[in-house]
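debug: dumping io for the single-chain case to check the tokenizer round-trip. Nothing else runs in this session.
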Amino acid sequence: MPLLIVTSDRFALHQTPPGHPERPERADAMHVVAEAWRGRGAQVGAPVAATREQLLRVHTAGHLDALAATSGQAVMLDPDTFTSPESWELAQLAAGATVTAVDAVLDGRHRRAAALVRPPGHHAEPGRAMGFCLINNVAVAAAHARARGVERVAIVDFDVHHGNGTQAAFLADAAVLFLSTHQWPFYPGSGHEAEVGTGDGAGFTVNIPIDGGATDLDYGLVYREIVAPILAEFDPGLLLVSAGFDAHEQDPLGGMRLTAAGYAGLTRQLVAVADRCASGRIVIVTEGGYHLPAFTESLDSTLGAMAGDAGASPATPRGDDETPARGMLASKRVRAVQSAYWRGL
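debug: decoded output
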């Protein structure tokens, strides 16, 4: 079955102020990558807007009503987050793209799918927009999968920033496992390893804060030693990925040193887990990534890993990068907390 890509060139119509990093050109890059993959045999489809019922599984009615009131206007929601006249419509379309992708894999029409969308979503909390995000796209996708009867859904977030909104949506939910690797300390200030979930959800939030400067080797080690074992033990029926590419070494907002090949390596690890646990069902959803060439290359390499390309190996280590000290430290800190919940650690 070919890779499915769900996207729309209309995502470029979400306008942000001049100089804002989450700019319309990111949608143009997504379009270029999608068309290139169409030429390689991927199926490229258009999304349908998410319904209010689908959005209410994650967001409050007050939040949705406040966003709807911005329709036709340019509004500053916080110092980082803006709408333009069509943003509310496009936010619904972005969330709908993830629903379309999830339906395609749950219906068996595709095993692997990608929703290339903007605005991004993982900072949007149930009751507020923040961090460039209006609607939490990946959370809507997870809630939709649960509504369709998937018993366990896992979300992995490799954006350089912590997915605080996704964490908030499922903090007490044992049916949705949330794992986040992110730079620490960094915006938005959440994501310490001690944040493990509450009530029945204790242990089903797994935060893996990593010191700045981490490389492909550091991330690869963390995914092998922490992420993959927990995913295998959780045994999800669907794997969702918040695919942010701002941990790339050239990104202006992050302080990590991942490469496009490194992103492909992480994705191959996740695909392998999905193949073992979820009948291959995996959906990626775009989040950050603000250096356009790096974003384009990383997205392309990630789709290559989704499609089964062997791809390039992560960058060859140089000098003191030969020892993944940051990854080892992050794994040690997380294992000290999460081993109480996961036997595989």
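debug: round-trip ok. The CA atoms of residues 24 and 118 lie 9 Å apart.
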